[in-house]
Amino acid sequence: MTYRAIAIDGPSGAGKSTLAKRLAKELGFLYVDTGAIYRTVGLAALRQGVAPSDPAGVLPLLPALVITTAYAPDGLQHMYLNGEDVTQAIREHRVSDAASQVSAIPGVRAYLLEMQRRFARENDVIMDGRDIGTVVLPGAALKIYLTARPEARARRRHKELLERGQQTEYEAVLQDMLDRDYRDSHRAVAPLRQAEGAVLVDTTELDLDESFLALINLAKERLGL
Question: Which pLDDT score, from 0 to 100, does residue 75 have?
């Protein structure tokens, strides 16, 4: 059986996860948040007292990490680290930065690549990340590059953090986002960029419903749904 895949790439705060989850629910596809997988590795490094940017410290941790996923009835992807549900823990602000650093290590990306591709071999998937259309699923039926201006993305992320009870300043969130954009787009392996054939969708001036409408129309057109 041949399964269909939708790849959604873009910078942090563009709305990838929120929109991909909603799109997956609407289409009956499996949603795969690859960023959550890298966040789990980043969390493991922090807990072990290892600098997330240090390959010599991070790579030896990988064989002992048991990273698994499970899905709630509403389609929410839960992440487990050595049997512990870390779905909430990986959303802490400090883990976002750690995820960006471990994802720049070629050995980490190679280690997790097969795990990501297996989802697409076994399910109709919507997968979001930073190298889905370029590396993980270059043959996806629909590739989308979702973006927005940094200031808009920072406002959204700041609001999200406050709603979770994490007190931080907007300026700090914006600077962290700019730093992460630079790291993600300049790393040596699988840098963030718009994949060949990907449709650019800028959500700066769009609200959530308008952004979703743009994506669902693209999916229906490209996949004949």
Answer: 67
The single-letter DSSP state of residue 74 is: T
Strand order of the sheet with strand 5-9?
30-33, 125-129, 5-9, 142-147, 199-202
For 55-90, give one letter per residue: b (16+ CB within 10 A) or e.
eeebbebbeeeebebeeeeeeebebebeeeebbebb
> Averaged over 159-178, what is the pLDDT?
89
Q: Are 141 and 222 in contact (CB under 8 A)?
A: yes
Cα–Cα distance between 11 and 75 in angstroms, integer? 23
Return the amino acid letter for 162: L
Name the CATH topology of 5-223. Rossmann fold (3.40.50)
> To the nearest 10°, the Cα dihedral for 40, 43, 44, 49?
160
For residues 92-126, b (16+ Cβ closer than 10 Å) or e, as one string? beebbbbbbbbbbbeebbebbeeebeebbeebbbb
Distance from C-alpha of 102 to C-alpha of 100, rounded to nearest angstrom: 6
Higher pLDDT, 79 or 187: 79
Pairwise CA distance, residues 152 & 129, whole Å: 19
Asked if 108 and 99 count as a contact pair (C-beta separation under 8 A), the reply is no
Dihedral angle over CA of 91, 97, 102, 106, nearest 10: 120
* pTM of this prediction exceeds 0.85: no
